[in-house]
Amino acid sequence: MHPVLRLISQNFLQSLPGAAGSGEADAAPPMVTSVAGASAVVLDSPHSGTVYPADFGSCLPLATLRQAEDTHVEKIYAFAPGLGVSWVEAHFPRIYLDANRDTT
């Protein structure tokens, strides 16, 4: 595994695509998944997910939050792994890691 993908895997407790369903009912969905490629090219979708972690704590309704999502990026780049391109995908939305958002 490429060192960058290994670092992402360690920091986000990543589960590789298809590894879900390990039988652990309480297991949280992975925050990041990746597909290692054979080339030096890495495509990523750093904030296009729709999973809001339990610690998010927003006072806004979900419909309002969903307006900040960049959904379906993974579909645009679905061809990439077939060409040997690495893929990294975050499953949380942009607003979860908004540097301008109040931490409380």
Features:
12% strand; three-stranded mixed β-sheet; 104 residues; 3 helices; 3 strands
Number of strands: 3
- Major sheet: 3 strands, mixed
Number of helices: 3
Helix content: 10-25%
Class by SSE composition: alpha+beta
Spatial extent as radius of gyration? 15 Å
Order of helices and strands: HEEHHE
**Approximately how much beta-strand content do the residues carry?**
5-15%
Strands of the biggest beta sheet: in what spatial order? 1-3-2
Distance between the termini: 37 Å
Outline, from the CA principal axes?
elongated
Mean pLDDT: 74
Q: Which blocks of ≥5 consecutive residues have pLDDT under 50? A: 12-25
How would you characterize the overall build of this protein?
With 104 residues, this protein is of the alpha+beta class. It contains three helices and three strands, in the order αββααβ. It has helices spanning 3-12, 62-65, 73-76; strands at 32-35, 42-45, 86-90. A three-stranded mixed β-sheet has the order 1-3-2, with helices on one face. It is elongated and about 45 Å long. The termini are far apart.
How would the blueprint of this fold be written?
Blueprint lengths: L2 H10 L19 E4 L6 E4 L16 H4 L7 H4 L9 E5 L14
Parallel strand pairs: 2-3
Antiparallel strand pairs: 1-3
Task: Offer a concise description of the structure.
It is built from 3 helices and 3 strands. With 104 residues, the chain is an alpha+beta fold. It has a 3-stranded mixed beta sheet with strand order 1-3-2, with helices on one face.
